[in-house]
UniProtKB/TrEMBL annotation, chain A:
Coiled coil: none annotated. It comes from the Bacteria. Residues 17-268 form the ABC transporter domain. Belongs to the ABC transporter superfamily. Its main location: membrane. InterPro entries: AAA+_ATPase, ABC_Ni/Peptide_Import, ABC_transporter-like_ATP-bd, ABC_transporter-like_CS, Oligopep_ABC_C, P-loop_NTPase. This is ABC transporter ATP-binding protein. SMART domains: AAA (SM00382). GO terms for biological process: peptide transport; transmembrane transport. It comes from Rhabdonatronobacter sediminivivens. Keywords: ATP-binding, Cell membrane, Membrane, Nucleotide-binding, Transport. One of its GO terms (molecular function) is ATP hydrolysis activity.
From TrEMBL, chain B:
The keyword ATP-binding applies. It is found in: Cell inner membrane. This is ATP-binding cassette domain-containing protein. NCBIfam families: oligo_HPY (TIGR01727). It is a peripheral membrane protein. Pfam families: ABC_tran (PF00005), oligo_HPY (PF08352). SMART domains: AAA. GO terms for biological process: peptide transport; transmembrane transport. GO terms for molecular function: ATP binding; ATP hydrolysis activity.
């Protein structure tokens, strides 16, 4: 079943954020390194797109590219476009980009402690974020800061506004980061592994909070994660990345019910399911792990980048030419030369 | 049932912490506060809990890598807490540990061959260098690496491969028992599955007994025979894995299981959302330590510390409202 929110791009209004053929490169001692190679997606208001991948997949570099936060001099967007409401952000000045961040795009990261200043109270830091982007009095900004703390579910917000970051727990600090990100009612929230490192009961609270805030504000969320459980819970659409490329994109239900790219199939097989026990059947049923290791971006395989680890690999077809993205169904794209055969074989097992 | 290989009774590990000023009163962190369980040979018991639950301290206290304050740890009939240093060293051959961080737990200056052979030499396993080298080669193959890796150094390996080296090192001294302290938490999902499969094979082939410390509930469900859910240094519920996941009885277990995201869209059912966060172990709540976050707590929960009561075969719960 496809929910309305997961409809393919063309079916609804213009996307808030539209990324086309994004290429991001880093200059290293050993030459140029292509960390993201041709990522495209549309993000619509009120929708959550999850970008999922393992280390080195390029998921975080994709989000840094959109935010214009690539490390200066080393990293650069080498191709493609990143359009916010139709206006390209690639190549605009840092001054203008600063206005976009905070006003139109809010951000939250994995480690809230490193994003907060230890020497100011959280209330001051939220007020500062508001004053940077809005022409209001300091008094009004402080009042708004307390409101925001309340909105993100911090008990006794007036009192907590006077606390310093170290006096708060990890979960509370992430709520403060969300309050800062929301300070200017952004239309896009970029959340890069925002619950990684939090305990599961706290993670559940933060995911619940993001869902509620999205329902209230209609903001679009770009959610970067490695956790398929979190994806299943929060995403409308999913983009799977491997070795710098997008290898599959689909509505969340389709991705979990009919994964087409062998890598996605492998990732799902690697994740223990509820009710799965190695002992249940007596003999140990093994997880369907993906063999081999994640390739280094310095030595990417020829042809399909996944072929050395793929159980469906065909010599020649998969080892020489890089497969293009193919449409497996409306709104469902897959980068695999053999996806039809794979689908038939998987259906049999 | 035969005698358990490992039997832990009322284990407590308390740490003194300094107050804010030199004159303020000394405080005590009750990291582990009355832990008890039996573990049969060939079984895997998992300790699960969130940060501050004491699961890591509990594991290390069992091996006396951290000295417990009181209690009893009986390993194959020997009380570990009564052993002197030399006796403990000898017993440790039979009890090995696999660490979470495969980057920090291998000496970067030693070749993989030396890392694995070191324990054998120390405990006098193998006859001479050649025999030990053959054993190292066999171990490397056992964990999915190859003989050629012997002369390489840890930095040449990926995280998953280093974890395999750590497992080979633990197996080198032919232990009966392994403490696996979050061994897959730092690994990517596709690599994590490889290591879980390996642990499963080793248990089946070598009959290893294991205490597995973890926070990922689906990993724990997949791997364990028995599961103990910890909160603030205590066991809230302990049962056979299948029983615990099918019939979670303690309100904390319920909340923990319902909070864990599952890789099935739309599967999120009725969620027990816990309010607030784990209290500081310096000042745990009186009575039941979970009561400040418990959705069903009543006034009597503050009065008494609930004991672990048997509610079914091998299923024990510390809650006066349930069971």
């Amino acid at each position: 079943m496809m929910t309305d929110r997961a409809l393919p791009p063309s079916a609804k209004t213009a996307p808030v954020l539209q990324v086309r053929d994004l290429v991001t490169e880093f200059t290293t001692d050993e030459g140029r390194l292509r960390a993201v190679d041709g990522v495209s997606f549309d993000l619509h208001a009120g929708q959550t797109l999850a970008v999922v991948g393992e280390s080195g997949s390029g998921k975080s570099v994709t989000s840094l590219s959109v935010m214009g936060l690539l490390p200066a001099r080393i990293g650069r967007v080498a191709g493609g476009s990143i359009k916010l409401d139709g206006k390209d952000l690639v190549g605009i000045s840092e001054r203008r980009m600063q206005r976009v961040r905070g006003n139109d795009i809010g951000m939250i990261f994995q480690e809230p402690m490193t994003s907060l200043t230890p020497v100011y109270t959280v209330g001051d830091q939220i007020a500062e974020a508001i004053l940077t982007h809005r022409d209001i009095s300091r008094r009004a900004a402080r009042a708004r800061a307390v409101e925001l703390l309340e909105q993100v579910g911090i008990p006794e917000p007036k009192l907590r506004a006077r606390a310093y970051p170290h006096q708060l727990s990890g979960g509370m600090r992430q709520r403060v980061m969300i309050a800062i990100a929301l300070a200017c009612d952004p239309r896009v929230l970029i959340a890069d592994e925002p619950t990684t490192g939090l305990d599961v009961t706290i993670q559940a609270q933060i995911l619940e909070l993001l869902r509620r805030l999205q329902a209230e504000t209609g903001m679009a969320i770009l959610f970067i994660t490695h956790d398929l459980g979190v994806v299943a819970e929060i995403a409308d659409r999913v983009l799977v990345m491997y070795a710098g490329q997008m290898v599959e994109e689909a509505p969340v239900e389709a991705l979990f019910a009919q994964p087409r790219m062998p890598y996605t199939i492998g990732l799902l097989g690697s994740t223990p399911r509820p009710g799965a026990s190695a002992l249940a059947a007596g003999a140990a049923p093994r997880l369907r792990a993906i063999p081999g290791n994640i390739p280094s971006p310095r030595a990417l395989p020829q042809g399909c980048r996944f072929h050395p680890r793929c159980t469906h690999m065909r010599e020649g077809l998969c080892t020489t030419a890089a497969p293009p993205l193919d449409s497996a169904a409306p709104g469902h794209q897959v980068r695999c030369a053999r996806w039809r055969d794979v689908a038939t074989q998987e259906a049999r097992t | 049932m035969s005698a358990p290989l490992l039997s832990v009774r009322d284990l407590r590990t308390h740490f003194p912490v300094r107050g804010a000023t030199p004159f303020s009163r000394k405080k005590i962190v009750r990291a582990v506060d009355g832990l008890g369980f039996d573990l049969q040979r060939g079984q895997i018991l998992s300790l699960v809990g969130e940060s501050g639950s004491g699961k890591t301290t509990a594991g290390r206290s069992i091996l006396r890598l951290i000295e417990p304050t009181s209690g009893q740890v009986e390993f194959d009939g020997t009380d570990l807490l009564a052993l002197n240093a030399a006796e403990l060293r000898a017993t440790r051959r039979r009890m090995q540990i696999i660490f979470q961080d495969p980057f920090a737990s291998l000496n970067p200056r030693m070749s993989v061959g030396r890392i694995i052979a070191e324990g054998m030499k120390l405990h006098g396993i193998g006859e001479g260098t050649q025999d030990r080298r053959d054993r190292v080669a066999a171990l490397l193959e056992r964990v999915g690496l190859s003989r050629e890796h012997m002369t390489r150094y840890p930095h040449e390996f990926s995280g998953g491969q280093r974890q395999r080296i750590g497992i080979a090192r633990a197996l080198a001294v032919e232990p009966d028992f392994i403490l696996a302290d979050e061994p897959v938490s730092a690994l990517d999902v596709s690599i994590q599955a490889q290591v879980l499969n390996l642990l499963q094979d080793l248990r089946a082939d070598l009959g290893l007994t294991m205490v597995f410390i973890g926070h990922d509930l689906s990993v724990v469900e997949y791997l364990s025979d028995r599961v103990a859910v910890m909160y603030l240094g205590r066991i809230m519920e302990i049962a056979d894995a299948r029983d615990l996941y099918a019939r979670p009885t303690h309100p904390y277990t319920e909340a923990l299981l319902s909070a864990a995201p599952v890789p099935v869209p739309g599967a999120r059912g009725q969620r027990v959302l816990l309010k607030g966060e784990t209290p500081s172990p310096v000042a745990p709540p009186s009575g039941c330590v979970f009561r400040t976050r418990c959705p069903i707590a009543g006034p009597d929960c503050a009065a008494t510390v609930p004991e672990l009561r048997e509610i079914g075969p091998g299923h024990r719960v510390a809650c006066i409202k349930r069971g």
